[in-house]
Amino acid sequence: MRARLTLLVAATTVLVLLAFLVPLAVLVRQVAQDRALGRADDVVQSIVPLAATGDTTALRLTVEAQTVPVTVFLPDGGILGTPAEATPAVRLAAAQHGALTVTTGAGQELVVPVVGTGGATVIRTLVTEAELTRGVTRAWATLAALGFTLVLLGLFVADRLARTITRPISELSAVSHRLAGAELTARADPSGPPELREVAGALNHLASRIQDLLAAERERVADLSHRLRTPLTALRLEAESLRDPDESARVAAAADQLARAVTAVIQQTRRADPTPDTAGCDATVVVAARVAFWSVLAEDTGRPLHQELPAGPARVAVAADDLAAALDALLGNVFAHTPDGTALAVTLAAHPGGGATLTVADDGPGFPAAHSESPSGDVAHRGTSGGGSTGLGLDIARKIASSFTISPPGPGGAVIRLDLPGTQEPSP
């Protein structure tokens, strides 16, 4: 924008200067010609009275004293002054007794006849091209230098003016990028034209409004800790009252996990500047633990559960809680949307360069045809569900994966594959 404004002013300045300097240059040339012709005419007119008297001696002295080359053609054929041949203009003036100004290849020829008793005396002078254009080149050079100086001055002023406009715009852009990067304390300094100051004020108001809304949202989420504490406590008490020790331990562990998940969500939400956990985890340990948890429910519902895990650790750049929540969401979908007795399998394959692929497959009815054609599955979009649920489970799994695919293995069932990004092995 700054360059365009400068070019616009430069083009406008050049056009204005051309509109003034070109006619002025033509006028300068015409004035120089008129000045040279006027000087020659004055010389000729000073000789005319002497030619009318017929005093040859005085006429010769006067002609020889002139600085301009003058030739006088006498009636008897004699020539005074600068030697020259009688041109057609001289002969015509002598015959018609009229003054002439003729343009020749050498310049402008002035011829004035003086009629006396003995005949016509013709006075001739030649104004050369050098005399006609004397001083014109220097004047044109001065005008060109003046025009170039004015253009440079215009460019400098235009650049300064453009800078006063573009600098506030650049500052507004920088502040908007900072706000997009979760730096909600960033504010724009209202400066520049009134319109830009109004935009800066609107951006600051928007940032303040976003900050207030996020603070209110954090407080509302934090209230969940108080609302969920009582039912979680009651659930744990119910688990402890179960007669079967194994069943009691399983339900209590589920209640504890739910409490930890809610606490983690609340803590993450209340952070003023939340940052993702990039430390990662061992996917083998996390997947094994969650499969062991769900295997009890699979056994109760008659579902064959097959797991295939790497022999060693599989480091991934995903937090352990996030990976566990994603796998729980996938397995929870299987148990919620497939009939009892449906077989399922969980496979974790480590990548040689880091990362892993997590696959959850089942032999159930699969996803609706409208969703199975998409590489990522439309059902993976947040809030979209093909089975009447909230539509958040697959979105939770999709967020932790660098690549998320849903594909039906055949006429029934579904396969969900997550490519988990790798991370460096922690230093011992």
UniProtKB/TrEMBL annotation:
Its EC number is 2.7.13.3. The keyword Hydrolase does not apply. It is a multi-pass membrane protein. Keywords: ATP-binding, Cell membrane, Kinase, Membrane, Nucleotide-binding, Phosphoprotein, Transferase, Transmembrane, Transmembrane helix, Two-component regulatory system. Residues 223-410 form the Histidine kinase domain. The keyword ATP-binding applies. The chain crosses the membrane at residues 139-158. Pfam families: HAMP, HATPase_c, HisKA. Signal peptide: none annotated. It is found in: Cell membrane. It catalyses: ATP + protein L-histidine = ADP + protein N-phospho-L-histidine. PANTHER family: SENSOR PROTEIN CREC (PTHR44936:SF9). This is histidine kinase. It is an enzyme of class 2 (transferase). CDD domains: HAMP, HisKA. Residues 163-215 form the HAMP domain.
